[in-house]
Design goal:
Blueprint (H helix, E strand, L loop, with lengths): L1 H22 L6 H7 L12 H28 L1
Helix pairs in contact: 1-3
């Protein structure tokens, strides 16, 4: 039970970090943004940063919700 709580908290912190990172993307220089988003069809984060971060946020949010749901299910029942 404690391990599941630890995993849930870690996933939540990773998700919060990624959301803050996404919120600050507009603060980076234009040249860096163009360099890191030069190939929109690639899954390499060096040439398609924003899409890879979006996919990562979606996956971590999904895992976070499932882990908290499972944790509270076992806590209540």
């Amino acid at each position: 039970m404690q391990t599941l709580l630890y995993i849930s908290v870690i996933l939540t912190l990773i998700n919060i970090y990624l959301i803050i990172y996404i919120g600050t993307l507009h603060l980076y220089p234009k040249a860096w943004t163009e360099k890191t988003n030069s190939n929109p069809k690639s899954l390499n984060p060096r040439v398609n940063n924003q899409t890879c971060v979006g996919i990562t946020v979606t996956i971590t949010a999904l895992l976070m919700c499932f882990s908290w749901g499972i944790y509270f299910y076992y806590l209540i029942f």
